[in-house]
Amino acid sequence: MNKLTISFCGASLEPRPSGALWWPEARLLCVADLHLGKAERMARRGGGLLPPYECAETLGRLDTEIEALSPEVVICLGDSFDDGPAAESLSEAHCLWLARLMAGRDWIWIAGNHDPAPLSLSGRHLGEFVLGPLSFRHIAQADGPTGEISGHFHPKARVGGVRRPCFLVDRRRMILPAFGAYTGGMDLSAPEIAGLMQSNARAILTGATQAVLPMIAA
Amino acid sequence: MSTPLPPIFHEWFSSRGWQIHPHQQAMLEHAAAPALLLVAPTGGGKTLAGFLPSLAELSNGEHEGLHTLYISPLKALAADIKRNLSTPIGEMGLPIRVEDRTGDTSATRKKCQRADPPHILLTTPESLALLTSYEDAPRMFAGLSRVIIDEIHALAESKRGDQLMLSLARLSTLAPRLRRVGLSATVDDPQAIGALMARHPDPVEILQADPGPAPDIAMLETETPPPWAGGGGRYAIPAVLEQVRQHRTTLIFHNTRAQAEIFFHHLWLANEEGLPIGIHHGSLSREQREKVEAAMVEGRLRAIVCTGSLDLGIDWGDVDLVIQVGAPKNVKRLVQRIGRANHRYNAPSKALLVPANRFEIIECQAALEAVREHDLDGAPRGAGPRDVLCQHILIAACVGPFWSDDLFAEMTTSGAYAGLSRDAFDACLDFCATGGYALRAYDRWQRLKQRPDGLWQLRDPRAAQRIRMNIGTIQDTDTLKVRLRNRGGGKPLGEVEEAFAASLTQGDTFLIGGQIVRYEGLREMTVEVTRHAAQKPKVAVFAGTKFASTTRLMDRILAMLQQPDWPDLPAHTRDWLRLQSELSHLPQRNRLLVESFPHDGREHVCVYGFAGKNAQQTLGLLLTRRMEDAGLHPLGFVSTDYATLIWGLEPLRDAAPLFARETLQEGLETWLAGNAVMKRTFRASATIAGLIERNMPSARKSGRQATFSSDILYDTLLKYEPDHLLMQITREEALRGLVDFGRIEEMIDRVEGRIDHIRLERVTPFAAPLLLEVGKVPVVGAGRERLVAEEAARLMEAAGIGAADPGSLA
């Protein structure tokens, strides 16, 4: 498959079909909104008992990317767990799996709105993180710095009759799609998203065909 | 034992100059029956017949609390019945309180009804299921004596009926002497409906009212013959308009909403004298529909173009003609539609059929004969669906702790679930309690828990509220509201399916509510449009129901084709049949006709399976897969109720191996799994079974990104646990619904390998119309991905950016 490379604020970045973002120069992998433990949280609150394979699926995807890229730095861009208790109740097998993925890497947990409390997991726990021209945080700030990379909104675009998670990028900021298995999406036309992006912003689809299209048309 | 009619009733009847119909009298005489089914044509005073015993029993004022529960499939019908009952009750001064309770009833009113129920409560299956979920249900229903189920023939065909019967099983536990009364339109097999409604294994008594005079029904004669292919019946507009002129009020039924819209559009263009004509279908907004209904009741409309949305319900009064456009597909539904004309007892209903194309002439003729011979078609529904069972286990848990043995015993008194095995029940209970997954992940958070004493109960009693909010089996398809732009929150024009909305680009025009509108954009999940004065709209393809013709009707057509001549058919159609017989074969019931021929530079294969549209469509998918494997390079196919036409690059040499049962079965297994039909079916079943919640206690708006598509759950289960209960249910449902593989199997059984493969030099008379059919399905592999890429490139270009390297952005 052709690799898609975009030049963003002086950094050369690769949005991956999986929804992860790869910065080869810094050997940095960034994923947003894993929402681990979502099924468990729903069950705890008396909702439907969803298929309990969501952590395995999300960790599996992350494993695949790490295996393929061998990053030195991994940034989880917030909402890595669906809530505080969900982080505590990760099964032993999944804890071990995660520990294996983290071993030998600089692992950064950015706080999200779902999981603001300090986590019991190892790795660095930060509100935001700056590296070179890029700054990483969970929610985009209205007047945030140039080179801001964030998650939170789970953008999705529809094109050719299908609806897929997508990256959004303009000259100043980039918003990542949700990487977690049990995550939904927000339409690009939603004012919360549309208001953040410049009019010439583009959407880059996840999935086998990494189509690039103007955000206003999607 | 019968319920005698007090003298005051006789006086009231004679004061109105009425006589009690024989079937109304019979209902009184059989009032003590534990299960009683009345089959009567529309307009036979059926509803009054149902209520008379209740009114008589209540007339002495001695009964305290709820006596009779009336259930109808339509909210509007409940309100209508309340009005109708108030006349006899008021005029006779009976001490009877009647109230209705539907989704539209206020919360205060509903609360009062539970504390102090009326004598007669009119409600819907969903509202009843909700009522039975409250802790005070035992008190409310303790004295219940009769339950009347109106339009039971319609309910019996859907999960709403299964839900209702499970609720009745609960009511019979609460009120063991409860009598059940069903009111049905004319059906093929009253015994089957009786078995569904009676408390198993109680017998059911069936009363057949005088069916009244035979309907006056014929094919509409037109100057131009119908076209070779397609639907819609546009060619017949002048003749239809002439009929509208000659009658007081005409109902013009269509099989799909899109066809109704298109027909209405053209009817209106041809309606030079401006006859008042309206349109009514399920995609229109409630306001729009209510406006048309009101105009209809006041007799202000000369015609209504409509769909199944008018199949049931309110007495429209002055309808004196029903026109069915397009083959009726189903004789039973045709008879019920015809009954909409002349809602008066003992007056023949008048109806005209308008075949939309040549093949439908044959089908219409077959349907006419079936109506005359009272040969109605019915499809057995099979065992009760387990997703509904799961919902009722949760409903039972809302009431309070329960014994699983008791619940199993209660549920198996419901006809559809009489054959339910204990294992199957236990699997459903386990699903409700733990999710039923191989990975036992929810030990701490089970939804239902078994207490040390063995009783089952909700782990968290607050879950009851969530369960109650999601009661019901009706599925909203994914539709988006359509509004006029710049009418700040103005009332919607109607709804279109999400997939249709996704296919629109700015400037496209389509029909909705009889007007042409221009698509401007999607805003906040609303389709924004402006009015547009175009002549030719882009076709509105929002689906509505797509019916497949019934097995019985197909059999009649096959029988007709075997006649030596067809004196009842128009000359052009007879000639067409003769020509087919000369150049190829006419299809036969116990053989499968397969034609192959070159046409227009492509090789074609035509398979006359007569299995109904859905099954023929599935057959097309399975056969093209096989042909792909065999290197025949199929490129696409198209299906109708009768046949599937496949085109490709290589000629078919040997048809027989394609139709081996195992081959088709195997193809089905692999193809089904990734299919969109399966995902849609899964969503419906997962919602009914309580896995997915449609309604949440906190406002949904707060986190739109939090709700995710059920497709994700389907994909996850397919990958990790393909044999999970919900996947089993999904497979069952799809096979009897949209995939309709059962009818392919039926066809294979019927044919038993007698395949007539005829190789011809050119297209045959029967195959030719198929070349003109719409709805061609391309055979895709990587096609979908290519479509996405091309569409994106087009959008980039349109935006003036060009499909250039995205890196140039910086």
From TrEMBL, chain A:
Gene3D superfamilies: 3.60.21.10. Signal peptide: none annotated. Coiled coil: none annotated. Residues 27-119 form the Calcineurin-like phosphoesterase domain. InterPro entries: Calcineurin-like_PHP, Metallo-depent_PP-like, PdeM-like, Pesterase_MJ0037-like. SUPFAM superfamilies: Metallo-dependent phosphatases. Pfam families: Metallophos. GO terms for molecular function: hydrolase activity. It comes from the Bacteria. NCBIfam families: P_estr_lig_assc. This is Putative phosphoesterase. It comes from Aliiruegeria lutimaris.
TrEMBL record, chain B:
The keyword rRNA-binding does not apply. It comes from the Bacteria. Keywords: ATP-binding, DNA damage, DNA repair, DNA-binding, Helicase, Hydrolase, Isomerase, Nucleotide-binding. InterPro entries: ATP-dep_Helicase, DEAD/DEAH_box_helicase_dom, DEXH_lig_assoc, Helicase_ATP-bd, Helicase_C-like, Lhr-like, Lhr-like_DEAD/DEAH_assoc, Lhr_WH_dom. Pfam families: DEAD, DEAD_assoc, Helicase_C, WHD_Lhr. GO terms for biological process: DNA repair. GO terms for molecular function: ATP binding; ATP hydrolysis activity; DNA binding; helicase activity. Residues 27-205 form the Helicase ATP-binding domain. Residues 236-379 form the Helicase C-terminal domain. Belongs to the Lhr helicase family. Lhr-Core subfamily. NCBIfam families: DEXH_lig_assoc. PANTHER family: ATP-DEPENDENT HELICASE LHR-RELATED-RELATED, LARGE ATP-DEPENDENT HELICASE-RELATED PROTEIN. This is ATP-dependent helicase Lhr and Lhr-like helicase. It comes from Aliiruegeria lutimaris. The lineage of its organism: Bacteria, Pseudomonadati, Pseudomonadota, Alphaproteobacteria, Rhodobacterales.
